[in-house]
Amino acid sequence: MAAGFFVSKTLGIVSMILGLGAVATIIALSVVYSQEKEKNAATLLPSITSTPATTPSKATPATTPSKATPANVTNTTPLSLIPEHYAVTLQPFLTKDASGLYIFKGNSTVRFSCQNATDLILIHSKQLNYTEQSGFLVSLQGVSGSSPPPITKTWLETQTQYLVVQLQGPLETGKSYQLVSSFTGELADDLAGFYRSEYVEDGVTRVPLTSDASDVRHDSYRHFLLSHTCEANSNSVRASHRLSALLSVRQRDSRDPPEAPLPCGVLCSPMGSGGSGLSHGVGGFWAVPRRWGFSCSPGGGGATLLTRPVPLPDQVALPDFNAGAMENWGLVTYRENSLLYDPLFSSVGNKERVVTVIAHELAHQWFGNLVTLRWWNDLWLNEGFASYVEYLGADSAEPSWHIKDLIVQSEMYRVMKVDALASSHPLSFLESEINTPAQISEVFDAIAYSKGASVLRMLSEFLTEDSFKKGLQSYLHAFSYGNTVYDDLWTHLQKVVDEDKIQLPTTIKGIMDRWTLQMGFPMVTVNTKNGSISQRHFLLDTESTVERPSAFNYTWIVPVTWMKQQDGAEQMYWLTETSATNQLFVVTGASNWLLLNINVTGYFRVNYDQDNWNKLLTELGTSHEAIPVINRAQIIDDAFNLARAKHINITLALNTTTYLGKEREYLPWSAALDNLGYFRLMFDRSEVYGPMQVSPRLPQVSPRLPQARWIAGSMAGWYNEINAISTACTQGVPECTQLAAAFFNQWKQNPSNNPIPPNLRSSIYCSAIETGSEADWDFVWQMFKNATVVAEADKLRSALACSKEPWILKRYLEYCLDPSKIRKQDATSTINSIASNVVGQSLAWDFIRGNWKTLFSQYGGGSFSFSGLIQVVTQRFASEFELQQLEQFKADNADVGFGSGTRALEQALEKTKANIKWVAENKETVLTWFETASS
Ligand SMILES: *[C@@H]1O[C@H](CO)[C@@H](O)[C@H](O)[C@H]1NC(C)=O
Ligand SMILES: *[C@@H]1O[C@H](CO)[C@@H](O)[C@H](O)[C@H]1NC(C)=O
Ligand SMILES: *[C@@H]1O[C@H](CO)[C@@H](O)[C@H](O)[C@H]1NC(C)=O
Ligand SMILES: *[C@@H]1O[C@H](CO)[C@@H](O)[C@H](O)[C@H]1NC(C)=O
Ligand SMILES: *[C@@H]1O[C@H](CO)[C@@H](O)[C@H](O)[C@H]1NC(C)=O
Ligand SMILES: *[C@@H]1O[C@H](CO)[C@@H](O)[C@H](O)[C@H]1NC(C)=O
Ligand SMILES: [Zn+2]
User: What positions constitute the catalytic site (predicted)?
Assistant: First the structure.
């Protein structure tokens, strides 16, 4: 509509946990409000989101849906209503209503002031039944003498999930009003919004109602709390006691501006509290009794980086939770496996996860809560930041782990696989690209988290960590309790660059826009003969078409660190052109080599002339420690990926692994196993697999690995040991399968005393199930049902997918749709485990195709696990036939849609096409390489 048409845009959620049953009453309430769209002039009216149950909200006759599509208004019109105060009351009911539903009732009152005249109010609202007031869904009241224009129409937009209020005339600039609504919603069991879940305690099934903020896509952005009442019934005296305890934690800080929006979580339950607490002694830890073991302390976490104090939150582990964790202000909620650690059951991987997730959520208290981005299109800055700081926080808590070294493998190489596709996307979207809940859900992907972290790490490295910190602190200080766009961060970093006189080829914005506004990353190629250096957009399939235009023509400003063997010192070069020539890169001498991207601080891949590649391989074969450990992993990973894109020969890539017999470090091994994993996926249903399993070229991969725990006590050492056992058992090395069987039988004879070291349990359970009988499967299933520690239950659940019996796997897939057997939160990861098994893959694919509509409706159209599901089940696809099936699947379900899996499906199609070509072109060479004895 015309100018003067104003919009408010909010996503919201109210969620609550309610316990049924005499003892186990859990009540949690978290109110999560987001998100204004337009700077300084947004209207955030609270909306109450209930479950996306199958019952859509129904517009009444008085609110006949209009043809107006608020979506096109939101993108262009400045917003004009400023929220001042929110009051939300929620009342969950502990018994089913007459129609057999668990419901909650609630009302909300929002006071806001009018900044710019407007006659339209939009509020995000999802599946709530509003109680009509004078024929409208809401009512509007004057405040302090203001008198609002009459409402002419209210209606619900299903696509964008707006409640729209059309007024007869404009609200008056400078006046305040309040919007009042009352509603009912369903407490379903779908892990979205307000939901209920079940758990078994002392043999009794409890039905708590659980809260999840992931419905606003895992991250809250601005959450607005008004006030709340939590009606505790006579069963829950203890619950109300806990409620007050927790409320006191998240009360407003007196420094907060009075109107400051406060993300909030509230919980009342008989949960236990334990653990050492955080180092600053504020946050406590909470979980269902008997589920919590150890809660670890990630030290200052983000606090060491970000000095502005924020209140440290309580940490709560919930029995059912879709996301990993949710950073509500004052009350961070976690999936149990992301908070609870028990040394008797948890592996080093579980421990790493707990430490990093806590550090991640704490980082969000600054980045996300204290300062909030304006709209979801810039989500990457929040998530990338938290994903980067999670390593810094974990490092300060556990310096002996050297966890920062893992970032290259866990974040950068992981995301480069996706970002090398023509169907990737930039870190930053346009605001207009992100409108619907499914689109919002989809932006929570590896690009936002892992590329975000990688690019911020690159920035921190070329600025130095001290200057980076200074800039962050200045940014956080300037925008506390406010909203930003990513440019605001560049501005504050630029100030530091100017103050500290840091030499850069152009401004921070000039550099960073290249990395955030265009997708992908460059391959930097140097020729050590003539010193030429050039860049080019790295695409896994060089023949794919990039449809997304880029203002920068897919060229980057690249911080290239480099060293030569002769000097051994790191140097810096800025590549600002498509190509350049510099004598710096000329290498003379028979053994001298050039190495680019030291410690892989830059987000790019590197290619060399053949001669330099050969020299690097020779160095690996003779004295590999002359090359930094992260770069030894880089040489392997870059080579395999360059070979996949046909920039180098596949045998060169394979040859990077032949020195591994001497390698004792985790990262190079991990890079090799990861890349050979791709070969396994491509060939484990073909004639190449036999020769690959027994190849004389790779004798070191399996039998030698278990021999030593190379770096005793270090995290990398533990991971090496896990890799060794898991690789050896997967390859069927007899010593390994026998070891596994012996351990397993010992356990079966005395189930209450598990002799298997926690680090090795996943591999040993899997091997035992793979080689074992139906009775073994049943035993593990029973242990899974009885498991009280979630770290243990998770290991058993994924091991159950290792069976080689199609009928057992088929039955297990069916269990995934039965929440009494497999919790909804675990359904997609269980299907993923089955799909990863070569026997289970086609079963899982049939299952997903056959049940897509059910999965989609029951497991939440917005749930972000769909992208993982599509990615895993299609990862072996490498034939025309499979491509056709995938295209058919896309066509068949076009009406249902793919929600957060939409982009993953496009990427799966692209990857399948690339795989088809790769297999056709490389199969013979690979077979020959594996069959030939190394020289
Ligand atoms: C939205 O856009 C469509 C087509 O561009 C237009 O017909 C419609 O009037 C617009 N709606 C509003 C509310 O501006
Ligand atoms: C209010 O509206 C005027 C005129 O349309 C516009 O110039 C101004 O930027 C708006 N102010 C805000 C805060 O949106
Ligand atoms: C909201 O509900 C509470 C509890 O039922 C009630 O006390 C309060 O008056 C209601 N507020 C509004 C604005 O309806
Ligand atoms: C909402 O209204 C629909 C249609 O009347 C009804 O089927 C549904 O049960 C209601 N939901 C709740 C939670 O009251
Ligand atoms: C992109 O290419 C166009 C046409 O070749 C050119 O005009 C423009 O300057 C280039 N932009 C950049 C950032 O290199
Ligand atoms: C590279 O990383 C290693 C391991 O983290 C570290 O010891 C070394 O100092 C780093 N080298 C450079 C040049 O930053
Ligand atoms: Zn996060």
Answer: 361 (proton acceptor)
Query: Which residues form ligand 3's pocket by a CB distance below 6 Å?
Result: 89, 107, 109, 180, 182
Q: Is the pLDDT of residue 847 over 80?
A: yes
- Domains: count for the chain: 2
**C-alpha span between 317 and 331 (Å, rounded):** 10
One-letter-per-residue 3-state SS of 822-835: CCHHHHHHHHHHHH
Q: Which residues surround ligand 7, an ion (CB under 5 A)?
A: 383, 386
- Residue 129 alpha carbon, nearest atom of ligand 4: 1
Residue showing tokens 């060169």: 652
Residue 120 lies inside a defined structural domain of this protein: no
143 in any annotated domain: no
Pocket of ligand 4 (CB under 6 A): 55, 58, 99, 101, 103, 129, 184-186
Q: Report if residue 23 sits inside a domain.
A: no
* pLDDT-derived band at 20, boundaries 50, 70, 90: very low
CA of 86 to the centre of ligand 3 (A): 13
In Å, the largest CA–CA distance within the chain is 91
Which structural domain range is residue 603 located in?
A: 522-539+551-662
Mind listing the pLDDT tens digit for each residue in 573-615? 999 999 999 999 999 888 899 999 999 999 999 999 999 999 9
pLDDT tens for 528-548 read 999 999 999 999 988 889 999
Are residue 778 and residue 899 in the same domain, yes or no?
yes
Find out whether 189 and 197 touch, Cβ atoms under 8 Å: yes
Kindly give the distance from the C-alpha atom of residue 549 to the centroid of ligand 5, in angstroms, as a whole number.
11
107 CB burial (10 A radius; 0-12, 13-18, 19+):
middle
In a domain, 917, yes or no: yes
92: its two tokens: 């969950």
Kindly report the CATH number assigned to the domain that includes residue 532.
2.60.40.1910
Give yes or no for residue 69 CB within 6 A of ligand 1. yes
Q: Is the pLDDT of residue 240 over 50?
A: no
Cβ contacts of 324 within 8 Å, gap of 6 or more: 218, 334, 335, 338, 357
338-392 per-position pLDDT tens digit: 776 777 777 888 888 877 887 888 888 788 777 877 777 888 888 899 899 889 8
Between the CA of 709 and the centroid of ligand 1 the distance, in Å, is 66
Per the annotation, does 364 bind a ligand? Answer: yes
Same domain, 657 and 689: no
Q: Which residue's CA is minimally distant from atom 10 of ligand 2?
A: 116
The residue nearest atom 14 of ligand 6, judged by CA position, is: 599
Does the pLDDT at position 7 exceed 50?
no
